[in-house]
Specification:
Elements (H helix, E strand, L loop, with lengths): L3 E4 L2 E4 L10 H5 L2 E9 L2 E2 L2 H15 L7 H14 L5 E8 L17 E7 L6 H6 L1 E7 L14 H12 L4 E5 L5 E4 L3 E6 L3 E4 L10 H12 L4 E3 L4 H5 L3 E6 L3 E8 L2 E2 L7 H15 L5
Parallel strand pairs: 7-8, 7-14, 11-12
Antiparallel strand pairs: 1-2, 1-6, 3-4, 3-5, 5-6, 8-9, 10-11, 10-13, 13-14, 14-15
Bound molecules: pyridoxal-5'-phosphate (PLP).
Pyridoxal-5'-phosphate binds next to helix 6 and strand 13.
């Protein structure tokens, strides 16, 4: 079955779907995106994803391409048309099409909406049971990493750096030697006394929806969470480490820059959190 993509009002076979060459997303990466998981035909954590999308759009002064109600219909339609039981929905909104000029167009233009689906991309079961490696590199992104912008070049290069070094992810390290986040994940460590630590929200990281959900689940399960920056040294000497994202869930990290973390195997706190998250993920209610 050929996959169906949504482009500005039309459902089109993906191979035939295209955007205008003067779309500002294409020319300036002047746009934002969301990746939402689909579990058993259901959008996982749809409302928080929509809220974050709204924040990204308003921070960049980009108009909604349609109402939130219509957007939900588009996503639901696309899941149906693609018979997407499990996978992800990728949605991208750009400022729209205009003759190339750095400044925003003076005439009001319609923002562009593209939605695609994917069935693949989930890490293998082995990665969850064995854990993954991460490497680090200096933070080199812009100062508004809280906006989920399609300007992902430093993130692309960071992920490639991981691949080239046999790792799953790269953690960015700022001037204070603290870890901001991964190229497409949030970063966490577990210290003695089962204290779970992750960086607080701010302009320097993306407010991950998985991060938010996990904090809620941990609190409900009486697991202590501290939101503060942590250094590379602290992470290497931690009992456990892990990363979170819509596609990686709660992924144990067992090696940082070639140095073993804890026992070198996924730890019990991480596994506990993964179980809590999986239960939430496959739960049947609309969230
Ligand atoms: C830079 C960055 N940080 C964190 C995340 C995790 O966010 P979420 O849990 O919403 O997938 C992502 C996801 O793409 C990301 O790109």
């Amino acid at each position: 079955m050929s996959e169906i993509t949504y482009v500005n009002g039309r459902y089109i076979p993906t191979g035939e779907a295209s955007v205008n060459v003067e779309d500002r997303g294409y020319q300036f990466s002047d746009g934002v995106y969301e990746v939402i998981a689909v579990s058993d035909f259901r959008l996982v954590d749809f409302k928080p994803h929509l809220r974050r999308l709204g924040r990204s759009l308003s921070n960049l002064d980009i108009e909604w391409p349609c109402s939130e109600r219509v957007l939900k219909i588009v996503l639901t339609q696309l899941i149906k048309r693609n018979r997407l039981r499990n996978g992800i929905v990728y949605l991208q909104i750009t400022r729209g099409v205009a003759p190339r000029n750095h400044a925003f167009p003076i005439e009001k233009i319609r923002s562009s909406l593209v939605v695609t689906v994917s069935r693949s991309g989930r890490p293998s079961a082995q990665k969850f049971t064995e854990g993954v490696k991460v490497v680090t590199m200096p933070e080199n992104r812009w100062g508004r990493r809280d906006i989920k912008s399609v300007s992902l070049l430093p993130n692309v290069l960071a992920k490639q750096f991981a691949v080239q070094n046999g790792a799953f992810e790269t953690w960015f390290v700022d001037d204070e030697q603290t870890i901001t986040e991964g190229s497409s994940t949030n970063a966490w460590i577990v210290l003695a006394g089962q204290e779970v630590v992750t960086r607080p929200l701010g302009n320097d990281i993306l407010a991950g929806i998985t991060r938010m959900k996990l904090i809620e689940l941990a609190k409900a399960g009486n697991i202590r969470i501290t939101e503060r920056p942590f250094t590379v040294d602290e992470a290497i000497n931690a009992e456990e480490a892990f990363i979170t994202s819509t596609t990686s869930f709660v992924m144990p990290v067992v090696d940082i820059d070639g140095k073993q973390v804890g026992t070198g195997k996924p730890g019990s706190v991480t596994n506990n959190l993964l179980t809590l998250y999986r239960e939430h993920f496959s739960g049947s209610e609309e969230v």
